[in-house]
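For reference, the entry.
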Amino acid sequence: MKKWCMIPIILSLLMMVLVSPAIAAGTELMTLFSIRITVIEKGIEYEWEYDSPSQYEFEKGDRVMKGPQAKEEMEKILRVLQLDEQEDVNNYVKRLKESHFPELDRIDIRFMNGEGELYTWVWDS
C-alpha cells in the first residue's frame, strides 16, 4: 500500500522537472506574458515578438520569421539587452549601439510579466 501512495508524489516531482520553464538570456520567457521589441536604424525596422507560451516572430524590414529561427533571434536580442524591470532606457540604447545598431534611431520595448505588469521603454534619437 505504501508503494502506491508514493507513485503520485514521484509523478508530481517528475512533472515539475519536465515542465519547468526554459531560461533564455537570463529572462524566463515562460513567465512572461508577452514581449515586443522594436528597433529602427537607418529607416529599417526590426521587430521581435514573443507571446506565452511559445509564439515567436522576428521581422527585419519586409522579411518575417516565425518558429525556431524567430526564437533564436529573440534570445540574441535578449542577451544584448539584458532586460530588467528597473533598467534605464539609456542603458538599452548603449547596449544596442555597442552590439548591432551603431546608428540607432529609435527603440520601443514593451513587456508584460506573468503578474500582468506592463513595462515600457521608448527612446528617439
